[in-house]
Description:
The complex is a heterodimer. Helices cover 34% and strands 24% of the residues of chain A. In chain B, the strands form 4 sheets. In chain B, strands 9-16-15-17-18-13-19-20 form an 8-stranded mixed sheet, sandwiched between helices. In chain B, β4 (31-36) and β5 (42-50) form a beta hairpin. Classes of the chains: A alpha+beta, B alpha/beta. β1 of chain A pairs antiparallel with β5 of chain B, so a sheet runs across the interface.
Amino acid sequence: MNGSITAISGSTVRTDLPGLKLYERVLVGHRRLTGEVVRLEAGRAVIHIYEDPHGLAVGEPVAGLDRQLTVDLGPGMLGRMYDGLQRPLQILEKLDGPFLRSGTVVTALDLEASWEASVAVNEGDRVGQHDCIAGVEEGQIVHRVRVPAGVEGRVGRLAASPLKLGEPFCLLDDGRALYLHHAWPVRVPRPFKRKLPPSRPVVTGQRVIDFLFPVARGGAVVIPGGFGAGKTILLQTIAKFADVDVVIYAGCGERGNEMSELIEDFRKMTDRAGARPLVERTVLVVNTSNMPVAAREASIYTAVTMGEYFRDLGLDVLLLADSLSRWAEALREISSSLEEMPGEEGYPTYLASRLAAFVERAGEVETLCGDRGSLTMILSASPPGEDFTEPVTQALLRTTGGLLMLDSSLAHARHFPAINWSLSYSVYDRELLPHFSEAAGEAWGRLRAFCRDILRREETLREIVEIVGMEGLQDADRLLMMTAEEIRDRFLGQNVFSDDAYSSPAHTLAAIDRIFARHQAVSDRLGGEQSLAEIIEELDKSGQAGNGRKRKEEP
Amino acid sequence: MRLSTHIYRSIGSISGQLLFVRNVRQARIGEIVTVVAPDGGRLAGEVLQISERDVLVQLYGDTQGLDGLRTRVEFSDAVSTAPLSPEVIGRVFSGSFQPLDGLPAFLPEKWAPISGKPINPVARDVPHQFIETGISAIDVLNSLVRGQKLPVFSGSGLPTKELVGGILRHARLAEGGEFVVIFVALGLTFTEYAYYMDTLQRTESDFIGFINMAGDPVMERLLAPRFALTVAEYLAYEHGKNVLAVITDVTNYCDALREISNAREELPGRRGYPGYMYSDLASLFERAGRVRGLPGSVTILPVVNMPEDDITHPIPDLTGYITEGQIVLHRGLHRRDLFPPVDVLPSLSRLMQKGIGAGRTREDHRQLANLLYKNYARGRELKKLEAIIGRDGMSERDLLGLDFAAAFEEEFIHQGEASRSIGKSLDLGWSLLRRFGLDAGLGPPVQEKLGEEPSA
């Protein structure tokens, strides 16, 4: 069937092509720009174009592809940088040079590549849906290739390893072909058997997060912060150190230089075990702020679908998205170009439900094949004017289980990570306590209570200090202020450009234990003849505090 | 490509700078049109929207005198492009790329669309080459590197043009070589214009001007930076130049964007600015950068005038989310006659870490910057305390911190018109810290070379 463009308004195009389905992918114009059907009207379809529409004319052809926006899933994704539509940017650079052009068509995976595979079935075997029929090793990850849902039959012919990605490796006797890779529509969550409650943490190596506001495997956490509060650096640090198998980093409407810096760093850095460069466990989905807005909207779905694929391989996956506010703005732009009725601050009224549906794709699950895999989300938000009451931040707070609020006053004082300890929270801390107690030491819970208590009391005392000064406080309160300062400067603060960038749970516990021991030692002697200053001097001299301060060796 | 120009006289309606033309065949989105008024005056415009019935054209100028019957609309079949040639260097143009210097138009070597193409993030080279601006507050604490986009956040009445002028006069590439300065004036007053032109003419470096004065057409404020950056990319990536684009004032740009968005009856966002302002500003600022394997660079220094000194106003707010840091000016410092009045606490350079240290500036640079920040931030905290309890109620240690902050502002931040080399700025920082005993026992490796004892 033929159809053509009948009207254009910005990135929104109307066409008279009949037979299109909602959310079908289409190619628009002579340059074959990628678009998506967003609305069907009588005899007309409304298409949103994912690329720069400049120069598009009325009358140019439109063709439907009879499938939704999909991503291609299989070996060869790790270490690659994709745009929001899963076009490999490294390949685009080879084809088009340093600048992005519209309309270049490339496959997401290298279909010419051959992979060593261990095929688990023999010719003549009966196979049914979800059966694992082959394994492909990619670095430390094994892609288990399974029979798609609803397919069963007898294995007719098997190809010999190495297997070419673009060719079928297994033919069933009814003629159906099975490939090492498959496509999945990005807006449809991948199925699993059941979701599991949070019980294990993602260790980030950041003391303030692991100790005070831990992130659960399968959990979702939001990091809102104004510009310069260190959002991106924090996300990148977590991407470096988190103890997961795969990291999907979605740069959604952010800076291009940061992305090139990230990939350059990840090439040089190895994981905690020192076994492999970080880039080999990372997939980047990048739609910088100057790349087309509509593809930015799609980019987080592209990212989460890839994350779900790795989860279904029985792996622990971390999805970092920076930033959801830019995604919401893209949604708003598309919505307003469709002339939909605006809700709060011009965002469409379905903002909250779309966000909730997206965040709900996080979780630790038992996969269809009985494995255990998890997809954890750490999402940043960029509230305009640091107004945390704005719709995107608020919608995210309702759907996520943790808030790591970045505070620009901390950032201005160069306290990093600038996570505000009195306003942040994590609903996972109770569930994760047994894990930390076992992994790091049973004092974890007790010391956390101590730490929180000191910080909370400091806040109240601070108001008094502002009126009477430190000199006007009693010794016990001054000690508390000193301990709080120690906690803030030496425990919560962590310099990513130093050796201290990563702190294991054991190391974290030892650090807070030292502060606690000293606080206790001084506190025990208060109330006698000696002044606070004298006690501290004496302790320093006798070396008692020194014992407490002795660094525990990293396990 | 059509073989002939399409000319229409079927104007449906004219409202402000928007023109509806009926029964147009094969119009393109973003196509450039020329409107010829009955008196022969010509006006450029761009196709905004195409529906089954008519085409909506945005005009780039004064629409007085147009009528519905005799006005002619010529469709060019091409999107907006800029003529490019190395001969642009040394010339001054209007916001729509017409010569203002009385010289004839140059012969273009090629044409390129002014909206530009995004740099493939994979092809970007991480900026790391230090630019010495001669200003301690920038060089030591918020270092600028080639290919960065670093705005100046200012307020009315603050000495912005003196600061930017100082950077233009003294900016030096650490590896040597000269900048080509592209000066983009958006809605500038004559006083500012005269100051900048005088500064530029007295510097040695090559420059190109794109000038839109306060009284010039508003639409040109949206075009001028796009022409300028298209020229910048051409000079950088095809002729290997290091380009420094100064765009002043972004606030005027955003107001023009709001005005035109409003005329198009688009949904207003925060403070009436359109919801796509972030993407629009990003389409300018993201054009800064370096491309792997190519010698040139585009560095962008936008100036933002913060209305009411409010950093949360949508313009500085969105700018800050896009740019790689910001240099924030402070009214309190200016009142005390300190120049440049840079408030280093909210200021930031995100790319600094890659541009400093051994082999780039000096090995002790990072350490010094951290110490200065820490102590100055503490001093500023203590200042609040001082306002409540007075000096008498403060401990010895607190007084020291307080005095350090004052000395830091008066001796380190303040430098008047003079320019300081990076080495000199770093030494000054250490000697200040040492005077107050705040150097934490860390010293610069060049301490002996200085040959002077820090005064107690």
